Each structure stands twice: as structure tokens, then as C-alpha cells.
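Q: C-alpha cells for this one, please.
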Amino acid sequence: MRILIVDDEPDLCRILQFNLEAAGYDTVVAYTGVEALAVDPVTVDLALLDVMMPGMSGFELARRLRANPDAARLPIIFLTALDTEADVLRGFELGGDDYISKPFSIKEVLARVKAVLHRTAPADSPSKIHLDELEADYASRSVIVQGIDVQLTRTEFDLLWLLINHRGQVYSRQQLISLVWPEGVVVSDRTVDVNITRLRKKIDPYGRCIATRQGYGYYFTADEETH
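A: Here is the predicted structure, written as C-alpha cells:
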């Protein structure tokens, strides 16, 4: 899971980032609402928004996020010193999922993040996928092809899981980089191609299901058509 942290206090951002990553989350940090809006909402699973920020408040940022179809269901937790009933109600009216008053403990933040993610997770989100003789298990991050355990790297598994979960959807190389590789890691289009090539070979004969849409990117097709 990837958490977007938006706060104009660099020290607080560093503390949140360190502890969230220590708890197993990926993070991306923005110090203003404008910076936060530049982050592709498809690449994050939850947003921690400070309310009192110069230029664009967290409330205004939440309003703009909710107006974006790609962020309409993004879980939002507000972080703020404003804790009056009116402020709390406004946050919920804008689509906030929770509200944490400053000062707060890191344990509280981690508990609230975990609870909101659990509460907002899609009920139909699969943990296992079966496609004929190909089986992928997200919990154990394992893949079995024709009864044989296939050893994939973390990146290869994440690529397969993304593509097979969204069969038919074409992802550009840049979208794959944003969704699969950690924030801050420099990745070229060639790196994406190399990982796709290795993945195809490892899951043969299903490798042909990872098709190329010339000029656009990659997608997974269940009928094994090739392009």
C-alpha cells in the first residue's frame, strides 16, 4: 500500500514517512496542495492531508481530489489542530474517512491508517487468481504454472498481479513505473521491457498473454492473442 503524505512541515513529513515505511507502507510526500495534485491518484491507496496549509488548505485539496474520477474513492485522513465539531463535520462532508487531531502519536496514526484501509478495501478484491493452469497468490506472492512453482522477483510478481487483475487494460511504461516501482527509484522504459521479457519467459506458455499494444504499452489478454 502506498500513502500520500501532504503537510507543509518537513520535519513532520519525515517522521510520518519513516514510521509508515517501517510499518511496511510505501510513501510519497507533498508539501503543498499543488504538489499533491501533481501525484497520480491511481498510484496511491490513501492520503494523509494536513488541513492548515498555505495557499491551498487540506479541505480544498480534498474537494479537488473528490472532483477527480480517479480519486473519487481515495481514502482520506485529515491531520489538523482544528478539532471543533464544525471542522470535523466539514472534513467528513468533503469525503474524509477519518480525522486525527494534532498533536498525535505515531501509534494512533498507524492504527487509523490500518483501520481505514481495511474498511475501504473493495469487498471483491481477490487474494488469489486462477486462470486455467496459472495460479497467483498475493498473500504468499507465489505463482504456479502447470503445477510448477515459478520463482518471480518482487517486481515481476507485481507486474503480473497488476496486469492479470486488470485484463484487457493497456498500461504505458510510465504507468507501470509509477504503479510497480518504489517512489524515487530511477527506472527507464528499457528496464520495464526487460522485466516484461523475463516475466514472459518464466510463466511460459502464459507469457504470450502479456501482449503489446504498439505505441501504447502492455496488457494481459486471457485468450492468448499476440500483438
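A few notes: The radius of gyration is 20 Å. The helical segments are 10-22, 33-37, 58-67, 85-93, 106-120, 154-165, 173-180, 189-202.
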